[in-house]
Amino acid sequence: MPHFPPPGDKAALEEGLVFTPKFDRDGLVTVVAVGAEKGEVLMVAHMNEESLSRTLETGEAWYWSRSRRSLWRKGETSGQIQRVVEMLTDCDQDALVIRVEVGGDGGCCHTGRHSCFYRVVKGDHDAPARLVLAQ
Amino acid sequence: MPHFPPPGDKAALEEGLVFTPKFDRDGLVTVVAVGAEKGEVLMVAHMNEESLSRTLETGEAWYWSRSRRSLWRKGETSGQIQRVVEMLTDCDQDALVIRVEVGGDGGCCHTGRHSCFYRVVKGDHDAPARLVLAQ
């Protein structure tokens, strides 16, 4: 399993060329999965050290399910496997973007939509904000 | 200030048309800011109830800085104000995507880069993963 060295100082985190993911107090980093071709945001999820290791080893996205408290190979039941074309880290190495090619029907969301972000928030000054289905 | 009703059940969260953001135990939702035109991921940050309210009211991105423990009007000092063209929520309403037009020099990252995701993670079977500057 790949080894992740502990995060260094600010300069090392931001300008260094060693991957030292900064896991939060629950041992997680935030991961944004985007479509490999168009770059549209598909989902936001989390990885712990083991799921991140497996993702790097296998080239397929493994997450940590906070609700089920278990490792989660995305698409294992649905066929919507996410093949990782590229992984990027942000400046302080506590968030990742993965560009993925999606297997199965190409969708991502458990509700059946292509992306989990299928509703637009419409602000309103006096009432609760409304949601409108995205085009 | 806009009012956010408490999250409902799974069906209401996923299919409802009232915005009921699901703040975590620190009172935060995860926010992915993407460029309004091309959709590239610029940064991942967090909003608490007040910063989300201000964002909806002003049309400019306000975040909660976890490191400084304070409200943070993005771009207040740098000029890199983020004008929110569209906000989307995900299926369980604990993550948001905002499509933003960036003021000032159009950048986003405090290191001076356009995006915070300027390094690619290159996995390696036996050694720590390396980082390579993105093209």
Q: Please report the number of helical segments of chain A.
A: 2
Q: What percentage of the residues of chain A does DSSP assign to strands (E)? A: 25-35%
Q: Tell me about the largest β-sheet of chain A.
A: 4 strands, mixed
- If interface size is counted as residues with C-beta under 8 Å from the partner's C-beta, which chains form the largest one? A-B, 50 and 50 residues
Radius of gyration of chain A (Å) = 16 Å
The residue-averaged pLDDT of chain A reads 94
Distance between the termini of chain A: 42 Å
- Percent of residues in helices of chain A comes to 10-25%
Uncertain runs of chain A are: none
The gross shape of chain A turns out to be globular
Strand order in the sheet with the most strands of chain A: 2-1-6-5
Query: What is the multimeric organization of the chains shown?
Result: homodimer
Look at the helices and sheets of chain A and give the structural class: mainly beta
- In total, the number of strands of chain A is 8
Helix/strand order of chain A, N-terminal first: HEEHEEEEEE
